[in-house]
Design a protein that fits this description.
The protein has 141 residues and is mainly alpha-helical. Helices cover 50% and strands 6% of the residues. It starts with a helix and ends in a 12-residue tail after the last strand. 5% of the residues are buried.
C-alpha cells in the first residue's frame, strides 16, 4: 500500500511539473495564423487534422515528392500471402536530405510546438508501409 501511495505522489508531482512547464512556455509559443492555426486547433480539440500538402504550404514539399517518387517503389517488395498477418515495413529515411528538410520546416515545427505546448525536437523521418491481410492488427484496426 505504501508503494502505491508513493507512486501516486510521484505521478502527481510529474503532472504538476508538466503543467508548470506548459504555463511557463505559453507566452513563448510561436504565433500561428490562418490554416496553421486551424491545424493546431484541430489537433488540440479533435486529436487529428486532415489537410493536404498544398494547404500545408511547406516550401520543400516539391523536393520531398520528387525523392519520394523515386524511393517509394523500392519499398514493400516482400511477397506476402494475404491470409497471413503481414507486418508493416518501416524505413528510416532521415539520411535523405529532402525528407529531413521537409520534416524540419519551421512552419511545421511551429504547428507542433503549439499543439504540444512545449519546445519540440526533430528526430527524423520514418516511412511505414502497411500491407493487405485478412487479420487486421496494430495500426490497421
Amino acid at each position: 500500500m505504501l508503494n502505491g501511495v508513493k507512486e501516486k505522489i510521484f505521478l502527481l508531482k510529474d503532472e504538476l511539473d508538466y503543467r508548470i512547464k506548459l504555463r511557463q512556455h505559453q507566452s513563448k509559443l510561436p504565433v500561428l495564423i490562418g490554416h496553421d492555426r486551424l491545424i493546431a486547433n484541430s489537433l488540440q480539440n479533435e486529436g487529428i487534422c486532415i489537410t493536404t500538402l498544398e494547404k500545408l504550404g511547406l516550401p520543400s514539399t516539391s523536393e520531398l515528392l520528387n525523392i519520394a517518387g523515386s524511393y517509394l517503389p523500392s519499398m514493400g517488395r516482400t511477397n506476402y500471402n494475404s491470409s497471413e498477418q503481414n507486418p508493416p515495413e518501416i524505413y528510416k529515411v532521415t539520411h535523405l536530405n529532402d525528407f529531413f528538410n521537409w520534416g524540419n520546416e519551421s512552419k511545421l515545427l511551429n504547428i507542433l510546438e503549439n499543439y504540444i505546448g512545449l519546445p519540440v525536437a526533430y528526430h527524423g523521418v520514418q516511412i511505414r508501409k502497411d500491407f493487405i491481410n485478412q487479420s487486421q492488427f496494430s495500426t490497421m484496426l
